[in-house]
Amino acid sequence: MRVWVWGVVLAGGLVLADWGAGQGLAAWLRGALDGSGAAGAAQVTATGFPTRIGVQLQAPHLTEAGRTVLALERAGITAPVWNPLSW
Fold this sequence. Notes:
The chain has one helix and six strands; from the N terminus they run αββββββ.
């Protein structure tokens, strides 16, 4: 019985870490875009839970010297949970 309890606790911890990684990445990216005068996005949301860690950017744009250099409708950045360094 103890093995099952520890298995459930471990699984819950892994799910919480996965969700937290996605939320943390989205919060970090929001802060980075807000602090930059040359780049921005209309909305940054965490996406991909539970199988992927990632963010979805709505209307990202990049400006240089007052001119728009890059404007997209949406962009997504994701990585699988089992290999978070393969973006």
